[in-house]
Amino acid sequence: MMRKRYPLLVVALLVVFLVSPVLPAHAATVRHVAPGGTCNGATPCYGSLQDAVNSAVSYDEIRVAAGTYSQVNTGGGITAVVRIVNRKLTLRGGYSLTDWTTSDPVANPTTINPAGAGIGVFIDYNADTSIGDVIIDGFTITGGSATDAGAGTDSGGAIYIDGTAHVRVTVRNCDIHDNSAEDGSGGGIKALNTDVFKLIDNEIYANQGSGLSLSYGANPTVTGNYVHDNAGDGLGFYSTTGSSTDIRDNTVEDNQGSGITLSTIGGGSVTGNTLIENHAEGGGGGLDISGAYNDVVVSGNTIRDNVADVQGGGIDVSGSIMRITDNLIELNTVTAPSNNGGGGLYVNSGASGAYVLLSGNRVFSNTTSNQGGGIVAIGEVDIVGNTIRGNSGGASGGGIVATTKGQINDNVVIDNVAGLGGGIRVYGAYGLTVDHNWIHNNRATTGDGGGMSLSAFTTLDLTLDGNQVISNTAADDGGGIYVECPNADDMIDIANTVLARNAAGTGSGLYSSICSLNLAYSTVASNGVGAGDGRGIYLRDPLGADAEYHLDNTIVVSQTTGVYAESGAAFLEATFWGTGGWANGANTGGGGTVDTGTYSYTGDPLFVVSAGDDYHIQETSPVIDKGVDTWITVDMDGLPRPTGATDIGADEWGELEKVYLPLVVSGS
Question: DSSP secondary-structure letter at 666?
Fold first, then answer.
């Protein structure tokens, strides 16, 4: 079969046709608007914005000279200064009568002011499905009033966008202020059913209602805006679709609502924003997120000095799948006398399948009168690699309150305060791991658990590994760790843990009530010295003395009493007791049973620099190779423990030992 041959020119023209964009059927016309209809010779010229719009066809540009434009008109039930219906136009202010080429809104302020007789700009496009743009650029829009009686709409005082299928709407370089909306939604801008909406480099302020309210939009982009002093949320997004919502580099402050609200959002990112001094009556003073169902990323934001009455002074999250990473969250507050807490963040992942990651955040100096000065975490939440410092939790959990089945790992938790659980309060846990945290100088001022308070009414299923719990205090029990189980059948595993220089009324290092306990490869040193009761480990089972405590490969030195069993039975193996300056007043005590096992050792443990909180062991430490094998295979730094020749205490000495220094956190 012979192939047809086409001339090269025909093929080239076909390729150009296929790859070229669809162009307007006519050459775009530049139209001019000036007060009084005098444009200094530029044509066509109009004295009314609406006259120019009515004369335009899609793809035209309307350039507007400095002045104030207040003439309203009514069509389709909407009263506005400008109604753009089924036209793809650019409306740009900032021109002068002597220069129609360069827009300069600062030098040539161009104002749309309906003076309360309607709204500023109305946009509606449903004529066809071809792609195009409506652009509003370089205006001051003020004096808009969205009321059903006056404007035909109760939202969108400055700009109301009512359905723009297949048309991209961009609002850029505008000052939008002192507009109002009857329903409080979109005092500045209301956007409804927009395919692509862009809000870029605007100032939106002093509107009666939210700055922006966007509903049922797809993939909005909101960047570089300054949104402040609005009587509602700063920026609100509701039921948005697509996976590319982009909220970036905005400053949102002093709004009487959440700084940013995201409700039922398909996906996207909130990055590089500054959210300060917003006040929400409900949750999320800085950022309020609910129903994020496709991995929303919140990263690199500064969230400071916000207030929420109910929960989440900085951030409130519910029922969402998302990542909150590398943010500064500080000086936020939850204020109502009866509140849910979470001065910095309140995170409730919600139904099964939802998941929230908190990672790399700095959570500083947040407060609540109830619980969770820094963070409240409920559900499937991982708290990993954050610095949580100087928060106040009121009743409980100065740093963290968690009812979760995720993980609390690799965090720095320091200088927090609460009634109980100065650093971390866990209440009910289902497969929770609390690993490799630095928990230092936290205070429980009226209750238990200076470093950590761990308890539950029904189930306490958790594992602690590699934590360094140092210099915490509790008014009652458990200066370092307080753990209480609903019954003695709950077995708590604690391994590779340093408990040092903590103080409490009872059980300065560790206080265990009712729980059965596996404590392995841990270092318990100098708890209660100069304060507290001076007992390193305090064990009790008031429900029947059925609890069993297994302590293997533990360094217990420099306490008034090393291991005190009020009730229950403690079984020790391979314990290192101090001598000389490291001696306990008594190694064991209490009315319960303490079996010290087959192997016990004494001496100076030879820590590296205990005064500097470094409880690694030196190369010549007598604890080396004295341990017995257990279920633990690595030490507190993650280095392997050799079978048959393991060391006692939290650290396994070795030539490849990681350098561990207490973290010094710089000021914010």
Answer: P
In angstroms, the CA 286 to CA 259 distance is 5
Residue whose C-alpha is closest to residue 433's, from 422, 442, 424, 444: 424
- Chain centroid, CA 144 distance in Å: 35
Give the residue, 385 or 194, on which the prediction is more confident: 385
How far CA 640 is from CA of 496, 540, 541, in Å, comes to 12, 33, 34
Residue 125 within a domain: yes
pLDDT of 395 over the 70 cut: yes
Quick one: pLDDT at residue 488? 63
Q: Which two tokens stand for residue 337?
A: 């006398």
How many other C-beta atoms lie within 10 A of the C-beta of residue 139?
30
Rounded-to-integer distance, Cα 133 and Cα 122, Å: 15
Residue 23 has pLDDT above 80, yes or no: no
The predicted structure's pLDDT at residue 7: 42
Which domain does 165 fall in, by range? 59-256
User: What is the structure's pLDDT at 354?
Assistant: 87
The average pLDDT across 278-293 equals: 94
| Within a domain: 231 | yes
How far, in Å, CA of 537 to CA of 525, rounded? 10
Share of the chain above pLDDT 70, in %: 93
Distance CA 60, CA 103 (A): 16
pLDDT of residue 460: 76
Q: Can you tell me the distance from the alpha carbon of 475 to that of 503, in angstroms, rounded to the nearest whole number? A: 8
Distance CA 83, CA 121 (A): 6
What local confidence, expressed as pLDDT, does residue 1 receive? 32
Q: Do the strands 614-617 and 607-609 form a parallel or antiparallel pair, or are they unpaired?
A: antiparallel
Could you give the C-alpha distances from 135 to 63, 66, 189, 500, in angstroms and in order?
Answer: 12, 18, 14, 64
Asked if 514 and 546 touch (Cβ cutoff 8 Å), the reply is no
Give the three-state DSSP class for 482: strand
Number of domains in the chain: 1
d(CA 552, CA 572): 6
Instruction: State the virtual CA torsion across 256, 262, 268, 269 in degrees, nearest 10.
Output: 30
Determine, yes or no, domain membership for 135.
yes
Residue 208 located in a structural domain? yes
Cα(308)–Cα(419) distance, integer angstroms:
21
Residue 421 binned pLDDT confidence (cut-offs 50, 70, 90) = very high
Q: What is the pTM of this model?
A: 0.92
* CA neighbor of 159 nearest in space, from 146, 168, 173: 146
Other CB atoms within 10 Å distance of the CB of residue 102: 10
